[in-house]
Design a protein that fits this description.
Blueprint: H1 3-18, E1 45-48, E2 50-51, H2 53-62, E3 66-69, E4 79-81, H3 85-98, E5 111-114, E6 120-124, H4 127-133
């Protein structure tokens, strides 16, 4: 887990505790035995990362209250919690430049879109990288 997601996870748990809400993880996407219908028993479903449109639609048919964490694009009918990837990266790079750094490297990867089985179906550019390039 990245530190950004860990901070979001911690914030969700802290806020849930304040409101006397319970946060559970019924399964992970890469678990071989998932019971998707169990999601109907929850007030909302929080998913980290992007999924295919077909996967999102299937989940919304079970539970319409879907929240995505840390995704790069808007997802129709879903709430999203994310930082401003490009602005944050630009601010960091501007600060480094202002204090005299001129040779700055970026090490990153691609974002992934997965299906209901947790299998990657598409990789796309990461917005941190887009900010670095700009």
């Amino acid at each position: 887990m990245t530190s950004n997601f860990l901070n979001m996870h911690k914030g969700i748990n802290e806020e849930a505790k304040k409101w006397h809400l319970r946060v559970e993880q019924p399964f992970k996407l890469d678990d071989p035995d998932k019971n998707w219908t169990d999601l109907a028993n929850y007030g909302a479903v929080i998913i980290k990362g992007e999924m295919t449109a077909a996967a999102i639609e299937q989940i919304q048919n079970i539970n319409p209250n879907v929240i995505f964490l840390n995704v790069n694009t808007n997802i129709r009918g879903c709430n999203i919690v994310r930082n401003d990837f490009i602005e944050a990266t630009t601010n960091i790079l501007d600060t480094l430049y202002e204090i005299g750094h001129r040779n700055i490297a970026y090490i990153g990867g691609k974002s992934a879109i997965v299906n209901l089985d947790g299998k990657i179906v598409l990789r796309k550019d990461d917005l941190h990288e887009d900010g670095y390039i700009a």
